[in-house]
């Protein structure tokens, strides 16, 4: 009887030796610190609070040789120059609609255009805010979404233009999220650009859309944040307290606001229950971060009667100063493109705004920071193919406006000499499995050895009363 028990102990000890490596190789339950996360009303990246400046670049996935495109196409060198010129870990908002993932020559799924964006962003250490669908008719199904679509029509192919090769938004979302959920370039998701329903009590319907579709996205990718995407003003089903109702959806992680029609106002809508100050308060009450998803100011140095680029620069800076001070986590002007269409929102290479976005002192709004310095009319939608638009975000480390920027080696943003808080010491979680394996193996080998000698050679182990293996042999 005792002999049998000894044999069992030996087998258990040997099992611990061989199973320890397996335990160490099991999936880790802790989230990667290289993913943007939210804690309360703050964003975090690499274990530090994350603030960003950036740009919209909706047309980045355009590839006229493969898809129908949405805006102008960037050549490979243009794409690289665009991403290389941003601060590392900037956030670029672009459109990844289904029409940009269909090969117009074969009518089959073709990810070439979207793949190219993710690859370039990853190469240059940048992040993407990926918009999956469009409320408006531009570049997504050939028609504006209606109430029926939000109430379940998204489960069926949406093709008011008669094109027969689209799948439903519901199915496309799952394809897209499954494909890119592990990309290091993925920053956040956005279900729909500026979703809204008609006036008359549809806020609960729109919230149900967020709950259901957002919940589906989170069931596929629970690691990345979902940003709301609404315009955030007086739109039906978004106005006033409706915004807070939508933000209460458990699927929504990040609030947003689109700043237009208030070009000279640093804090648009002060005193308005649908203005930016009210939206910041609602986000803070919901304990969620808020970003400026779009912000537009007309500007041109060549178009007659238009605000100069220098004046526009000061207006943007005033907005950034006021809005970051009020608690926003990120700022994305609309919108970068290779050439300008006149007096418009266009932000082109060489625009002084790009230098501001790349060097804006975000550390002023981080804990223990000390000084302060940095600074939209109606969006032109739908957008025509001739009106090319690309995005330029900036995040944590200021960058020179001139040559392409090499990826930064530090994850913490430091701006023009401002003292940064000392990093706290943390345990490298990737080493935990190694520690578990080593500890388990040592204990198992010690236990097995003691049992073996006690059983076979009759040695008395002075530690037997501790490890519980001292048995009377019959």
3D architecture notes:
Helix 8 links the parallel strand 9 and strand 10. This protein is of the alpha/beta class. 31% of the residues lie in helices and 11% in strands. It folds into two domains: 2-27 and 430-467; 37-365, Glycosidases (TIM Barrel, Alpha-Beta Barrel). Helix 1 runs antiparallel to helix 11 and helix 5 packs parallel to helix 6. It has helices at residues 2-24, 76-84, 112-123, 147-150, 169-180, 203-220, 242-247, 276-285, 309-326, 352-359, 432-456, 464-467, and strands spanning 37-39, 42-45, 48-49, 52-56, 91-95, 127-134, 186-193, 225-227, 255-259, 290-295, 330-331. The N and C termini lie close together (8 Å). It contains twelve helices and eleven strands. The strands form three sheets. It has a six-stranded parallel beta sheet with strand order 8-7-6-5-4-11. Strands 1-2-3 form a three-stranded antiparallel beta sheet, with no helix packed on it. Strands 9-10 form a two-stranded parallel ribbon.
